[in-house]
Predict the 3D structure of the following.
Amino acid sequence: DSGVTQTPKHLITATGQRVTLRCSPRSGDLSVYWYQQSLDQGLQFLIQYYNGEERAKGNILERFSAQQFPDLHSELNLSSLELGDSALYFCASSVGRASGGVGANVLTFGAGSRLTVL
Amino acid sequence: QQQVKQSPQSLIVQKGGISIINCAYENTAFDYFPWYQQFPGKGPALLIAIRPDVSEKKEGRFTISFNKSAKQFSLHIMDSQPGDSATYFCAAQLTLASGYALNFGKGTSLLVTP
């Protein structure tokens, strides 16, 4: 157990629907990251939050949104789902820092949420 | 655009052999290069990491070789064991004013045969 908890583990839904993936970071970690893993694209960085604020954005579609709550858990919302959104979605957390600090950013990943869009 | 290119996509090595996975990057602003190991059904976990001011880092059977001028780095697994069978991801970290962005390669699926 890495200490990062993701729910649900598996989710099957239909095109056009909306789902929410939840992540609880490791105790003491302030940063949360979301990654999408697919067979052909590997691990794609979506978005990062630090202590409730968005810090970095990657290849996140406009149909996707995320937030980090005061208790530091995070949710990734995926809407108007398409077949191509089927993937493993990983959450990772780190102690993080407000800025800078090379090497201070070791990520601990959760076990992932597998989304299947039919 | 893939910022970190990783090869090979898959690798089969006999027990006791050396596994070598290569990665290349373009952005010279990357400042931290970790390798992650992922077993089936699990999330990636940090294996070993290196900073660009170091040319080699060794931890047990795992060694990172880093060539800053060529913008390449590689993972060597000595005396490979069946328990090393996993997917390996190289990554490159960019430190931003507001946080970090960790860019992963597409991964290498390693199978170590008995």
Q: What stands out?
A: The two ends of chain A are 30 Å apart (CA to CA). The interface with chain B takes residues 2, 4, 31, 33, 35, 40-45, 48, 50, 55-56, 58, 90, 92, 94, 96, 99-103, 105-112 of chain A (CB under 8 Å). Residues 31 and 74 of chain A are 10 Å apart (CA to CA).
